[in-house]
Please model this.
Amino acid sequence: MADIKPLTQGSAADSGADKRRTQRVQIAMPVIVRGKSGTQNFDETTNTVTVNAHGGMLLLQARVGRGDKVMILNPKTTEEMPCTVVFIGQREGTRTQVGVEFAEPSRIFWRINFPPEDWNPSQRKKAGPLTSSAVPQPKKPG
Model:
């Protein structure tokens, strides 16, 4: 199962002035990206870095520019979403961070449960140590 980590304000991937319409979740999910790089069509298998109901951040070898149209395919569901490239970020080896925005928001495309919009990770209750009184005891036949 993929490791899902909601991003917190002030993290490296989130500037304080950059307010999100929906909660971003840090998760590496396999995707297939189809589009054009210059005059060449490309079909690249990669992973997401972060996702939300409006799109996500991917790492691509193909060279794309802001405003380019691409299709994102979820290989687990075979569902495709038309997207627009909205962000070109840092290079990581042979790949570049690419932010894409869905043509229409979809909370179900990624097939994960997003935290509620008012979720604040700093207010999350921490689980305390288990005590014998916290562990359910089997009922004795009676």
The domain at 5-114 is CATH 2.40.10.220 (Thrombin, subunit H). The chain has one domain: 5-114. The two ends are 42 Å apart (CA to CA).
